[in-house]
Each structure stands twice: as C-alpha cells, then as structure tokens.
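Record type: monomer structure entry
Structure origin: computed from sequence
Chain ID: A
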Amino acid sequence: MPEPDQDCPVCGARPGDDVCAGCGWTLCTPWRVGRGNRQEYDRDLAGAILAEELRAAARVADTWEPCAPWLSERPSYAQWVGALAERSEGTRPSAPVLAAALRDLPEDGELIVVEVGRDGLTATSVTYDSVNGEAIADLPWTRLLPTLPDDPAERLFRLAGGLRTAGRPALEDALREGLRAWSATWPTGTERIAVCRAPGWTLPELAARQLAKMVVAEHGDLAATLAGIAAGRPTRTGCGLLVAEVDPHGGAVRPGLLPLFEPGDLPGAKRTVVVHRPPGGEPVSLAVVTREREQRVLGVWRATLETETAVTVELTGPDRVELSGPGALTPTTAELAELIGDLPGRLDLGAGQRELVCLLELNGLAATARRRREFVSDLLELLDMEAPNRVDVTLVGYGDHSSEGRYTERLLHRSQGPAVRGDLARLPEPARSFVTGAAPLEDALDEVRVSGLVRQRVLLVVAGRPPHAIRAGRGPRPARPCPQKIDWTEALGATGANRRLAVLDGPPGDHATTWELIGANHLFLLAEATPRDVGTAAGLLPETPIRFPIPLAEPL
C-alpha cells in the first residue's frame, strides 16, 4: 500500500488525510494482523484508476474513444455506461447570485465576473453604468499552464480530471501562481464571482475557487444572463422626455423634462406624455434623459410630429427605454449638448393671437385660378407649421354675381377655424364665363366687416380683378357698378384690418390706385411671391425660419 505522503495513485492529487479528497481513494489504513492481499489491492486500484479516467472522459465527450490514448485500459461497455450514468455536472445557476450582487452594488462600485471554461478564462467588469459588462482580460489555458499538452483532445482530458500521470501537484502550484499574477492588477477589494463554464471539470473548478469566494457553475453566456438580470431590475434614476419650454411672457426658451419614470420603477412600466410640434414642422429628436446632476441620454429617436402628439415610453430595464406612438421612429444617437445646443434663446411670440382674413378670387383663367388656390394652400400650411395655434384664419372665396346670363345663387364661400384648409380644397371650380373688368371683391370685403379697428387683424386679398366701381363709369368700356350697391372703399375701411396686403395675377395697370389702397402695406405679384414673403410682410412669420431640435412642452 502507498505511504500516506505519496501522491494519490488514482487521481494524482497531493496527499492529505487518510482518504484522498479528490477521488475518495483510501491512502492509509491502520496496521492489521496478518498478511495483506496484494492481488486484490492491485485489482481494486486498477478499477479505481479506470473509473476516475472514465469520469474525466465522460465530461469531455459522449464516447470514450477521443480519450482512448490516455486511458489505462480499454473499458467494457458496462463500465462506460456506468461512467455516463454517474456523470454529474453539479450545475449551480449564476443568475440568482449575480442578481443579488448587482442589486447591492453601489453606484461607484465594481463587480468582476470571471468565467472559467474549456478554452481559458475571461474576466468581465460590471458597474452601475455598464450592467452588460465589459471584458477586461482573457487568459487561455495554454498561457496559464504551458506544461499542458499541445494536443487539444489530451488537454481537455487533463483539464477534466485525467491528471494521474500529468504531475497534478505541479500543475496546481503553477495554476495558483498564474492566477495570482493574472488578477494582481484588478482593483483591490473588488467583489468577485467566478462562473465555471465546465461544471465538474477538475482544473476549471479549482481555478474558479481560487479566484473568488463565490463560485457558481453552469454552461451559458454571461451577456445573456446579465441582460436577463438587467431586464428585471428596478431603475435607480428618474428620467423624462426632453422638451423645449417657452416662457409665455418673455418668450425665453429653455430645455425641460416631461416626467416619465421614478427611481424604483420596474421594467415593463409605460408612460404616455403629450408633446407639441415646434415651429418649422421639421423632424425633431425625441430624447429620454435622466434626472440627475450629470444627466445622461438614454435614447434618441427622430420623428415628424403632428400638431399634438402622444408619445409612449416603455421602461425595458435600468436605463433602457423604448418609444412608440408618433408614427415612424428612427433610432439615432446624440449627446445632450447637441440636442439643446441649437435651441433658440428666445422666441418672439408677438402680441398675442393674430387673425388672417384671406379673400380669394375663384374665377378667372383656370390655370391662374388654380395657382391662386395653391398659393393660399401653401401659405396656410406654412402658418400651421411655423406658427401653430397662433393665427386664426378666415377664408372667403368669391365668384361672380352672374355667369352665362344667370344669377349666381351663392356668391361667397366663407370658412374659418381648423376647417379652413379642408374647405379650401372643396371650393367651386372656376366658372367658364366671367366679367373680365371687375369682380365682386366688395361683397367679400363687406362679408368680413367689423366694428372698429382690430389690432391684430391682417387682410390678404389674392385676386386678379379689381372690385366693382362705386358708380357707373363713362367711356367706351364703362366700369360696372356693384349690383348690391356696396361701396368697396367703405367696406375696406370696415374690415378693421391694421395691415393690408394683396397678391395680384399681374401688374395693376390702370387700377394701380385701387390696388395700392387695398394692399396698402404691400403688393405682390403671384408669379414672384412666396408664402414666406407674404407671411413675413403680414407680420405673421419671422423673416428667418426658427428651428427647434426638440418638441415643445406646451403649444405656442
């Protein structure tokens, strides 16, 4: 029988107690009277050696043939089936242990997770801000233990426990020193958790125990485990949707947050907030930002908003959110400084709500009449984009008193409020016959008369023909008076407009005096005018478009 100070003849482990801690082989027994049975001992020893080797081979593969060169003898079918039946990986799930450690991790703390597998070791640093982890070191077995066999199959057999003839004590000493040197640069006092990715394998299990007090063992992927844990963790930091806040009194613009989530909210929580389209109507950035001293951007999406848009945000994990709601969303990235850097310092809101009264001539050459309507449509769209909810629009479309010798039943078509743009598209088509010299603009002016001057009222006439004369004229082509006997000059004064503009089909010619009175502040030609030119001259729009990179918290 071996002396108690010799390595274990079965697994090669360094001697310790009377029974080998590695394989359970009895190393030393009390003296007995009589002679020992050497043949029985040798037979038992050979059986124990083969059983130990088969346990290692069963960890490596489902058949013993890959490890055949290093087995002490060829196993029987029954012996191999027995080894497979006894194969126990002894898995110990990592998720509960990692979840507990991450739950208690301070905001400035760090957790190092070491994975020990067939090919080597990987150390991953996990922090409060990086729950998914960042690999900080890799160490293959061939570098950690250079004396391991070069042959991959034999190396796996030795790692799994086939160490009887591999100089196990020397390997264990080298393993201890190699791990000490490898981990020497890690922060002192940092909590460690070792995950053995080869459960039951002798050297990987030993390495895991030497690297950390807390050891778990299972196959799997650390990134997936951490992602699953993160998905169930409550958030520690509140967050909100980044918006622009405009002071209704002075027009000062500053960034703000619409509250979304509070510390302690769990993944799966959803919040819906309402934002408003800023001037310009261009795509904006919908950004979720933390509420803390050093604010962080958790996510950014580009979207084109309606006038009022509901945005739904879901908390998918700590510091992780997803957006839905405002139509198509395009994920992007941006720093907080980029998102708020282009905000205007001040927005000139003007003196309260404005009113635009637009009188649109419906008849004339068909192509010209269409251009007038398109111009008005484009102007209304621009106002809706750049001055949302700031301009009340009244539209009056007017035709002719009669057409083809018959009296027109409905001369005026009035619309106002939100329905204006839709009503504009439904106005009657141009009449096939009309009087070229004048149009009943005076009737349209009379339709919008008010008592006194309205400070914020703008009159815009988009037309080709002047109004009917006050009285019948003289000459070869006398001007026709208004059948309703409306004095257009009196009706013009009764509109109460403090600013008057006109967009004409062409130069006013003989009617210059009339049009200069109607468009007292500015006359435009239809072929040259742009909606912005007219909106600016009317005092409804700024000369330079104001751009907001983020949505508004409240409507203007």
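Annotation 1: The radius of gyration is 43 Å.
Annotation 2: Residues 93 and 218 are 6 Å apart (CA to CA).
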